[in-house]
Amino acid sequence: MNEDIEGKLEKELYLFNKGKHFDSYLTMGCKQETYEGKVGFRFTVWAPNAKSIGLVGDFADWHVGIEMDKIGKTGCWTIFSEQATDGQCYKYRIEQPDGTVKLKIDPYALEFEVRPKDASIVKDLPKKKWSDGLWTANKKRFPVYERPLNIYEVHLSSWKHHDDDTWYTIPELQNELIPYVKKMGYTHIEFMPLMEHPLDASWGYQLTGYYALSSKFGTMEEFQNFVEAAHLANIGVIMDWVPGHFNRNDYGMVYFDGTPQYEYSDKNKAENNRWGTMNFDLGKDQVQSFLISNAFYWIEQFHLDGLRVDAVSSMLYLDYDLGEWTPNEDGSNHNKVGVEFIKKLNEKVFERYPDTLMIAEESTAWSKVTKPVYMGGLGFNYKWNMGWMNDTLKFFEMDPLFRKDHFNLITFSFMYAFNENFILPFSHDEVVHGKKSLMHKMQGDRYNQFASLRTLEAYMMVHPGKKLNFMGNDFGQFLEWRIHEGLEWESLDDEMNAKHLYFMESLNMMYKKERALWEVDHQEEGIQILDADNSAETLLSFIRKGKKPRDFVLVICNFVPVERKGYKIGVPFEGVYEEYLNTEMHEYGGVWTSNQGPLKTIKETTHQQEHTIELIVPAMSVLILRPKRIFGVPKN
Predict the structure, then answer these.
(1) Residue 25's CATH number
(2) Which one of the listed residues 361, 430, 514, 579 is annotated catalytic?
(3) Which one of 118, 196, 240, 310 is the catalytic residue?
(4) pLDDT digits (tens, 9 = 90+) for 575-614
(5) Of 48, 63, 45, 172, nearest to 109 (Cα)?
(6) Which of 124, 153, 534, 635 is the most buried (most CB within 10 A)?
(7) Model pTM?
(8) Mean pLDDT in residue range 42-71
(9) Which domain holds residue 71?
(10) Is residue 423 assigned to a domain?
(11) Residue 521 among the catalytic residues
C-alpha cells in the first residue's frame, strides 16, 4: 500500500482507537478513491483479532476474495479494488482466532441488498446540494424551548398501503405524508428506526446496518429529498436511534472478529435477554467512535433535526435486563461506562449542532436527564414523560364513576412537570400488543369514547410540555396498530372519525397559534393552578401563560360525563372573555351547536383571583377561554 495512504489512514485510525474520530464513516467502510491513477473503491474495516480478512464480492471470488492488508497496530484492515463498482455486493471473509471462517457484512456499509438477502453494497456518499438553508437558519434564530413542538410519530411502512397492500415508497410519502402533516398542524415528523434491520417484528429497533437506510424503504437519495421537502414545508424530521443494543444475527456485528468486539466481554453485560440482542460495549473507545460518528452521519448527511434515543434506561443500569447481572465492585447497579458515553455523545452533538433535538426515551426516575453535563446532567435537551403518560392513560381507561377517587393520577404530574424538559408522548408503545388503540381504551359507547378521546388529547395539549402523537390517534382508529397493515384510513368514511380528524387539526392549529401553550413550557411561571383539589366533581382548572401579560388562556377540564352548570372560575383581570376551544362542539363530534357568547367578569374572589366568570362546563370536555377585552394589564 502507498506510504502516504497508509500514513493518512494510521492518523485517522489513531483517533478512531482513542474514541475521538467522530467522522469515522468518512474513513471506514467502502469509499470511492483514485489510487495510483486508478478509480475504484477502498474498503477499510476494524477487526483487531482477526487472523486474516479477505474482501469477497461480485468483483472478487466469493470463496477466497482479495486479501486485505493490516494497517500497523490499528486493528484495522484495508484494500483498494479498481474492479469494484457502484451497486455490487460484497462481504468480509474473516478468519477468526480459532481458525473459524465467517462472512460478515460491513458495519459501515451505506446500502444493503433487499432482504432476505444481506450482503453489503458498494456505494459512496451522495453529493447532494441542499436547498433548506432558510429552515436551518431559522432553527438558530428561535430557541426550541420557546417554540411549539408537536410531533407526529410514524412507522414508515404501515402509515398507508396501496390497494394491493404494498406500502408507500419514500417519494410517495413525500407527496402525501408531508402535505398531510402540514395540513394537520404538526411541527415535526418522527420516524421509527429507518436503518437496516432483518425483522419487521422488531419495528426497526434491532439493527444490523447503522449507516444504511433499510433497503425495504428506499435509497439514501430518496430520504435526503424527503427531509429537504419537509424542511421546505416548515416541518422538521426526527428519527429513532438505537445506540444501546444491536442485532445478533451471525452475519452482523456480533463477535465480529471471533472475539467480543462491539459487545462487552462479560456475557452478563453483553447479552440482552429482554430483546434477544447484544449490548454495545459503551466503554470501548472504538465503539464510541462508531456510535457518535453514526449520530453525526444522520444529522449531517440527512439534515435530521433530531434523534430520539431509544432505551436509554438500558444503558444506565447494569440490572435493567432480565436474568443475571454483574454489579460494580462497590455493588452498585449504575452502568458507569454507559453514563459516561451518553454524556460524551450529547456533549459532542451539541458542540457541533447546538440546535439538534436529542430526546431521551428514559423510563426511570434518573435525575437531570435533560440538564447539561456541566450541571451534572446526562445532557439531553428533551425526555419523554413516561410517568405522565402512564398515569393519564390509567385514569382515562378507568370508569368515570371511580375517577374522583383517583384524581391524583391527573394532578400528580404538576409536582414534577418542570424537573426535566418533557415531551408528553402517546406513542406506538401504547397502541400495540393488546393494549388497544387510544380510542378503544376509552370507556362507554362510541359517542362517549370519542368525547373522552377529545378530552384526553386536549388535556395533553394544555399540559406543560411538548407533544407527540402516534399515527392513527389523529382520526380515532379503533383497532390497535398492526405493523403489516396500513392505517384504517377507510374509517374516515364514518362521520365520527372524520369529525375527530377535524378536531385534531383544529387543536393542533390552536396550539401553534397560542403562545401561552409553548412559550414558557419548562418553567413554573408558565402555569398557574387555580383548582386541583376538586376531586368530587373531577374538575381541574389552571391558567397557561406566555411571556407577555396578555398572552394567557384559562383551562377547565371536566373528566366525567356530567355537565356542570353555574361553574365559577377565577380570572386574573376584569373584562370580557371568550371561548377559544370547546371539545364538545358539534363540528368535533359533540352536542354543542354554539358557544356561550361573551363571558363578562363579576367582582368576586374565586380561586384566589379577584374576578370571576360563571359559565357552563360541558360534560366530558376541555374548555379553553381567552381574554377578549380586559383591563388593568399592559398591552406589551
Answers:
(1) 2.60.40.10
(2) 361
(3) 310
(4) 999 999 999 999 999 999 999 989 999 999 999 999 999 9
(5) 45
(6) 153
(7) 0.96
(8) 95
(9) 3-121
(10) no
(11) no
